[in-house]
Amino acid sequence: MPPTNPLTLIVATTPIPTCEKTLLGIGLNGTLPWPRIKADMSFFARVTSRPPRPETTNAMIMGRKTYDSVPKSLRPLGKRINVVVTRDVAGVSKRVSEELEEKRAKMATPAAATTTTSTGGTKDKGPVTDAIVSSGLESALEDVEERFKGRLGSVFVIGGAEIYGAALKLGGDRPLRIVMTNVEKKVVDGEERAGFECDTFFPVDEELLTEKGWRKVSAEEVTEWVGESVSGEWKDEGEVRIQMVGYERTN
What we know:
Number of strands: 13
Order of helices and strands: EEHEHEHEEEHEHEEEHEE
Oligomer: single chain
Largest sheet: 11 strands, mixed
Radius of gyration: 19 Å
Helix content: 25-40%
Strand content: 25-35%
């Protein structure tokens, strides 16, 4: 049977106009091209860690560079299955396993993750923290779906550009969604809007997302996908404004 679990790309982009089309910038020098946006970071954390059903855990698939961009003290990200895609599976697996054990040791407090039941056993209180390493996107999907069969919640792709590109090239038998945070600089006192400098781009430009094969979904549909209210309206934070939107592959 074809896979039915939707694959959701979650990404923040900024428009970069060129002579021919508008590109969607996502990075500069290995980091984000805009200042820290608390609202977007909180949104990402909530959406990726909130499972759709009890006793399940969401998975996040990412490239090795994206994993390494997370502060070491936070790796792997808690209450989620961190799936790292790399060509150096053996080397990265050793490091990720060590970081996972360190993370679990920190979490091993008297009140951590489990409670005692009336029968003397334990009962999970919520999503688990785990990490696996795979050689490619398709093998990552196979690994996580097999290893966490019956316990897997939503599956997200969180970057970088190469992994996003691989996801967009997957066969059409798997539902594919994009939850995108649009980021723009605010216009102050009528000044001309200026964008952010980027050297890394989302592998689909703005125009292609409105052409055949994709549809822009309503704010109500995005709300259903992510489990919290999304208005689709622009909101200001500091020197930027952000907007959450969604797209769905239609064929």
